[in-house]
Design goal:
six-stranded mixed β-sheet; Cathepsin D, subunit A, domain 1; 44% strand; globular; 177 residues; mainly beta; 2 helices
């Protein structure tokens, strides 16, 4: 079974959410995100500035996002032809052509591209995904979001299982059946 590992980690530093349980006991939870290592080197245009950030962006697997999201600071560094444009159906209302993410509301275009996932053990997985390419003039500085539909989990298994040796006690993977 082919697949890649995914990784639980905190996003930016080591944030912890502290709270009081009924009865007054203090408790805390780490603020975790599910990360994938993405290799977009095949798409990046050399000499386009911030090449490393665009070729290997931070990437969060967002199980609440229907599609993948690529902020402009990533996709604007791609070579021409790296993304296949997917024009909106003219009947799609204008209000549906905006994405609310990262504290803002941004217009987007749809495109399809090949994405290579890698894990720390050297395994790779290629997938072709539909993504929302934000038009934000570089204002949106969130990680790339890997959403669930549009080719990411289609026909694949997103698996989590207890693993005492893994960070935060869980092992995650995206696998082909």
């Amino acid at each position: 079974m082919a697949g890649v590992k995914l990784y639980l980690r905190t996003l930016g530093g080591n944030p912890v959410l502290r709270f009081v349980r009924p009865g007054g006991a203090l408790d805390a939870l780490p603020v975790l995100r599910l990360f994938a290592y993405v290799d977009l080197r095949a798409h990046v245009q050399l000499g386009s500035g911030s090449v490393v950030k665009a070729a290997h962006p931070d990437c969060v697997v967002d199980t609440g996002s229907p599609l993948s999201v690529l902020p402009e600071y990533i996709w604007s560094r791609f070579r021409p032809g790296a993304v296949t444009p997917l024009p909106f159906d003219p009947a799609l209302p204008q209000v549906r052509r905006f994405l609310t993410v990262g504290g803002g509301r941004y217009p987007f275009e749809l495109g399809e591209l090949d994405i290579c996932l890698r894990d720390l053990d050297g395994r790779t997985m290629s997938l072709r995904a539909v993504a929302q390419l934000t038009r934000d003039n570089g204002a949106l500085q969130v990680p790339m979001l890997l959403g669930l539909s549009g080719g990411v989990i289609d026909g694949r298994i997103l698996r989590s299982e207890p693993d005492a040796a893994a960070p935060f006690g869980q092992a995650w993977a995206l696998e082909d059946p």
